[in-house]
Specification:
The chain is an alpha/beta fold. Helices cover 46% and strands 10% of the residues. The strands form three sheets. The chain has an eight-stranded parallel β-barrel, surrounded by four helices. Strands 1-2 form a two-stranded antiparallel ribbon. The longest helix has 25 residues. The structure holds D-xylulose (XUL) and cobalt (II) ion (CO).
């Protein structure tokens, strides 16, 4: 007997299907630009939102009572593994991501917490073997517990720095044991509330020190996965140090860590930083730093991280556009860091959330591939920049001309005519591709 006996495997039925428990656009084996949809998209389930989050918010407690959540903490943790793998199998989701604290209860001591982790990791390993489902990435939760009140690696308390390192060490060990393809750093408490009590220089130096130690440890144990940093501008702290992609890239370069890390870009974090999802992906792509994606969306009426399932086709199209131009995500994938709403209390709501997310990305992939095949924006951008293909261009880009030379050029030639940016025309074409694909 399983935990979702009332639901059978979700299959592709096409866009006209009236069966809500089917894929309308996600057709895993369909080939797009020479690769199957499932290879392009590498979907992953976030363990925390799907199997640990029970609906609590600032104003109320749990709203969801999952029927497998019965027994003591360890029994619940074990049952959740079986429920999670059955869910992923039925959803055709080939990967999962986890925090240490999602999969096993914390014990009274670090030793006890690690013991609990080892027990659950063994069960997860068996389920991975049985199903062929893989681990996209693991991480540690160094933000929830009271000890992280002043930060984790950025804490003013050096014993908290040590504890953080110990948690990361164990989380990296188990991620490696589970064959994880990446390891993520999201600094939930690595930031500040006020500069009146914060030594930002020391905190940033310490964050870099911790990351350096993590790189050393990765090499020592032979972990082959990619290390990823996940930017977020605020929440839970007022200002998070890993504010957005360009801040993180600058930080990594300052401390000589740019070749050791890539970035995990989350859609809702991008919009909290007042950027589009596409902007963040684009900044990573042009810096060769795009590692993986936390696929979700926010609510533009709200100023916090609502972590909703992605349903906006415009955003997924432009996200997949950047991902395709990047040549894919390498070891990364599309992790649904998304939760069904507090009021979505039925167990099958977990399916509807993932179905709409997978379908929206699948359609986005299809549109993005066509936009690239037809070179719609590529050719336009090339044409717009065509003035950079003359003699002046060569001198500027090769550093063969200085201010005096440029002044001479300006005095002799003035400025040639500008071309139109044609934004509205391009937006119309984008809509046309979305409708017709
Ligand atoms: C928080 C968030 C995290 C990270 C992993 O906003 O996105 O869940 O993805 O710690
Ligand atoms: Co995330």
């Amino acid at each position: 007997m399983g935990y979702f006996d009332q639901i059978s495997k979700i299959e592709y039925e096409g866009s006209k299907s009236t069966n809500p428990l089917s894929f309308k656009f996600y057709n895993p084996d369909e080939i797009i630009l020479g690769k199957s949809m499932k290879e392009h998209l590498k979907f992953s389930m976030a363990y925390w939102h799907t199997f640990t989050y029970l609906g609590s918010d600032q104003f109320g407690g749990a709203s969801k009572a999952h029927h497998w959540d019965k027994g003591d903490e360890m029994e619940v943790a074990k049952k959740r593994v079986y429920a999670a793998f059955e869910f992923m199998e039925k959803m055709q989701i080939p990967y999962f991501c986890f925090h240490d604290a999602d999969i096993a209860p914390r014990g009274e001591t670090l030793e006890k917490s690690n013991e609990n982790l080892d027990i659950i990791v063994n069960i997860i390993k068996e389920e991975m073997k049985r199903t062929g489902i893989k681990c996209l990435w693991g991480t540690t939760n160094a933000f929830g517990d009271a000890k992280f009140v002043h930060g984790a690696s950025t804490s003013c308390n050096s014993s908290v720095f040590a504890y953080t390192a110990a948690q990361i060490k164990k989380a990296m060990d188990i991620t490696m044991e589970l064959g994880g393809e990446n390891y993520v750093f999201w600094g939930g408490r690595e930031g500040y509330e006020t500069l009146l009590n914060t030594d930002t220089k020391r905190e940033l130096d310490n964050l870099a020190l911790l990351l350096k130690m993590a790189v050393d440890y990765k090499k020592k144990i032979g972990f082959k996965g990619t290390l990823l940093i996940e930017p977020k501008p605020k929440e839970p702290t007022k200002h998070q140090y890993d504010f957005d992609s360009t801040t993180v890239i600058g930080f990594l370069r300052k401390y000589g860590l740019e070749n050791e890390f890539k970035l995990n870009i989350e859609a809702n974090h991008a919009t909290l930083a007042q950027h589009t999802f596409q902007h963040e992906l684009n900044m990573c792509r042009i810096n060769n730093m795009l590692g993986s994606v936390d696929a979700n969306m926010g609510d533009c009426m709200l100023g916090w991280d609502t972590d909703q399932f992605p349903t906006n086709i415009y955003d997924t199209t432009l996200a997949m556009y950047e991902i395709l131009l990047n040549g894919g995500l390498g070891t990364g994938g599309l992790n649904f860091d998304a939760k069904v709403r507090r009021g979505s209390i039925a167990e099958d709501d977990l399916f509807y959330g993932h179905i709409v997310g997978m379908d929206t990305f699948a359609w986005g992939l299809r549109v993005a591939a066509k936009l690239i095949e037809d070179r719609v924006f590529i050719d336009f951008i090339e044409k717009k920049n065509s003035s950079w293909k003359n003699e002046l261009d060569k001198k500027i880009t090769k550093g063969e001309i200085d201010f005096e030379g440029l002044e001479k050029y300006a005095l002799e030639n003035g400025v040639s005519e500008n071309v139109s940016g044609r934004q509205e025309m391009l937006e119309g074409i984008l809509n046309q591709y979305i409708y017709n694909c």
